[in-house]
Amino acid sequence: MYSHLEDYIYELYMKIGITKPSEMDMFLIAKLLGVVISYQNRAIRMENEIALNKGTIRSEWMMFGHEICHYLRHVGIQLVMNKLFVDLQEYQADYFAYHFCVPTFMLDKLDISCAEDIIKHFEVDYEFALRRLEMYENKQYTRSVSL
Predict the structure, then answer these.
(1) Could you give the angle at which helices 83-101 and 4-15 cross, rounded to 10 degrees?
(2) Which residues form the IrrE N-terminal-like domain (predicted)?
């Protein structure tokens, strides 16, 4: 059983025809979602543009996962928001990025036993992969206990 977020991401990827890790290209996904990627000194989302810091493929992919959450799920201008609401949106975007960059429905189809397996398939850095693996293993445990 998937969470609301996992269902959302599954449906999003199905809608744009992305079904396996090898199809997960940031520029293709941006195009399919109607988003323009640019590079600036600060990662930010403005209208349908996502500005990223120039970095490694992995760092840009993880930033994109964070910023695409703001594009898809958030409204408002953070510069005029209450700090607590900004903090909430940032927490949500970080959490979204883990599931967007390494979707559960794809993990379910792979033989994943360590962070390096996630890195190999999803082009994320080690700390990100380790945290995502922990989330996934906790989910697997919860699934087995509730059966």
Answers:
(1) 60
(2) 61-134
- Among the listed residues 90, 94, 58, 60, the one whose alpha carbon sits nearest the alpha carbon of residue 76: 90
What is the rounded CA–CA span in Å between residue 1 and residue 54?
37
The structure tokens listed for 118 are 């996630």
Tokens of 120: 């190999």
Per the listing, tokens 């990025």 go with 97
Mean pLDDT lowest for which of 25-29, 39-43, 142-146?
142-146
Annotated domain spans of the chain? 4-146
At residue 40, the 3 state secondary structure works out as coil
CA 85 to centroid of chain Cα atoms: 20
CB atoms within 10 A of CB 78: 16
Average pLDDT score over residue span 78-95: 90
